[in-house]
Write a structure and sequence with these properties.
heterodimer; A: 328 residues; alpha/beta; four-stranded antiparallel beta sheet; 15 helices; 22% strand; B: 211 residues; mainly alpha; MetI-like fold; 9 helices
């Protein structure tokens, strides 16, 4: 059973009369997200990606079609109850400025009626998770935090009641490039540990390639292609997707990059496929994909010298060849 | 300056002052209780904002002496008609500030609250009112000072507040009593203003803004 399923979902804004002849924001989308998967809705402004995401927790009601979370149609429970079990992170963070960091993080547990002790313990655990030492941060107010720290609190708050599903709407969009990288890495680390089902909205192609298990490329309310990042890069469904991800360039560029320049210098674990340090990254990528592996052992004259990972290659591809801002 | 009226009239002035404080507090309490729901509704229904503010603005422009005199045939003399008139005056400022305060709450904060599963009432009481409170309190400060000033006129309604000193002073050509009345009224307005300023600084929402 998919964690989230869209079935023929359409959204046209406006009341019944206004909908007449107006283009749909989301047009007949059917799409499934597996348990523990991070999917990115990628596309230019106005493509319907945020609308798609906001229909999952009913901040926007679909005009037609059904959405299922954990097999249950989302209208079978009251909206407030549904939302308490779905984490929600937005670009503007939306922390409550008149409440401390601890009170902000405790929002959903309080709504769910947890007792005080359990809430306190959970708040500390979450602040640890997002690398904000609780002793230092619990009692601070949002204005006393940097933008990056605020979004960490935003993420902790969204995960407070341990929801299986997380919705993230351009969560790192307003954050400087270096901090954004940090937060992305942190999200990847958290995701590896607790593996939520995440719908992540962005117009940043590099971010999509770094984070996504699968990417849904959207335009004009439709999903043009929904696939693993590598498959989209190597086999774009049409010219729009190719242009958005700059795919031809990417593969050309990767064929010019030596494996050892992207390698991590720690000893590879046993049983990995090996590739010579002098090979190019495109070859490494093909090997990874052909074998469904996440990393390869890099060898120099037959001796293991390091590890090259799928995300390192995709990241390099994104950095070198792909425009960071799609659309616009 | 002739401050001679103060000596020998301490008890009398204290009585007027107490009466003045009472009518001010009663007025502000009732006025706030009415203005908060009205302000909340007009903040939610933008179509209502302009007509409601036009009506309250019209009331606000009626000279206070005239309004009190107009109410006498219907309500007679006393605290009730006087307070009713003062409450009507305060509505313009209070309703406006309640509505502006609520509308001024960052919509992304409300969106985050909804997205986490807070219901509308909870959002109103736990998010919107607390964040609007500095603006509402600013309105209350203006309304308080205005009420203290206009309440002097209520003395014609037989309310024995500080206005009595002004009317008596005029009737008896006693500038010393008028001066004493003016000083006490002004002092009361200033003290109330300072108290509300201190309250404002302690609000979490104010501290969230200015640190």
């Amino acid at each position: 059973m998919p964690a989230i399923a869209f079935e023929g979902v359409t959204k046209v804004f406006g009341d019944r009369a206004a909908r007449e002849g107006r283009p749909a924001a989301v047009r007949d989308v059917t799409l499934e997200v597996e348990q523990g998967e991070l999917i990115v809705l990628l596309g230019p402004s106005g493509c319907g990606k945020t609308t798609m995401m906001r229909m999952v927790n009913r901040l926007i009601e679909p005009t037609s079609g059904s959405i299922y979370v954990d097999g249950q149609e989302i209208h079978q429970v009251p909206a407030t109850q549904l939302r308490r079990h779905i984490g929600y992170v937005i670009q503007q963070v939306g922390l409550f400025p008149h409440m401390t960091v601890a009170a902000n993080v405790a929002t959903v547990p309080r709504l769910l009626g947890w007792d005080k002790k359990r809430i306190e313990a959970r708040v500390d655990e979450l602040l640890e998770m997002v690398a904000l030492p609780p002793g230092d941060f619990r009692k601070r107010y949002p204005r006393q935090l940097s933008g990056g720290q605020q979004q960490r609190v935003g993420i902790a708050r969204a995960m407070a009641a341990d929801p299986a599903v997380l919705l993230m709407d351009e969560p790192f969009g307003a954050i400087d490039a270096i901090t954004r990288r940090d937060l992305q890495n942190q999200l990847i680390a958290i995701q590896q540990r607790i593996s939520k089902t995440i719908i992540f909205v962005t117009h940043d192609t590099e971010e999509a390639l770094r984070l996504a298990d699968r990417i849904a490329v959207m335009r004009d309310g439709q999903v043009l292609q929904y696939d693993r990042p590598f498959n989209i890069l190597t086999d774009p469904a049409n010219d729009f997707v190719a242009a958005l991800l700059n795919t031809t360039d990417v593969l050309q560029i990767l064929s010019l990059v030596r494996v050892d320049t992207l390698m991590q210098n720690h000893a590879p674990s046993d049983g990995l496929l090996t590739i010579d340090a002098g090979q190019n990254a495109r070859t490494a990528l093909s090997m990874l994909v052909a074998n469904g592996a996440d990393e390869l052992a890099v060898t120099d004259h037959g001796k293991p010298v390091g590890v090259i990972t799928l995300s390192a290659i995709l990241h390099e591809a994104a950095r070198r060849g792909v425009p960071t801002e799609a659309g616009a | 300056m002739d401050l001679s009226y103060f000596s020998g009239h301490e008890a009398e002035i204290a009585g007027y002052l107490w009466e003045h404080v009472q009518i001010t507090l009663i007025t502000l309490a009732i006025a706030t209780a009415i203005a908060v729901p009205i302000g909340t509704i007009v903040a939610r229904v933008p179509l209502l904002y302009a007509p409601v503010m036009a009506i309250l603005g019209a009331i606000y422009t009626i000279p206070s002496l005239a309004l009190l005199a107009l109410l006498v045939p219907y309500f007679g003399f006393g605290l009730v008609p006087a307070a009713a008139a003062l409450v009507a005056y305060a509505q313009f400022i209070l309703v406006r500030n309640v509505a502006v305060g609520i509308r001024g709450v960052d919509p992304t904060i409300v969106d985050a609250a909804r997205g986490m599963g807070m219901g509308s009432w909870r959002i109103l009481f736990q998010i919107e009112y607390p964040l609007a409170l500095p603006v509402i309190l600013a309105g209350l400060r203006i309304a308080a000072v205005a009420t203290i000033a206009i309440a002097t006129v209520a003395a014609i309604d037989d309310v024995p507040d500080l206005g009595r000193m002004l009317f008596d002073g005029v009737n008896e050509s006693n500038p010393s009593e008028i001066l004493a009345g003016v000083i006490v009224v002004s002092a009361l307005a200033i003290v109330v203003d300072i108290i509300l300023r201190v309250v404002d600084r302690r609000l979490p929402a104010t501290r969230a803004r200015i640190g």
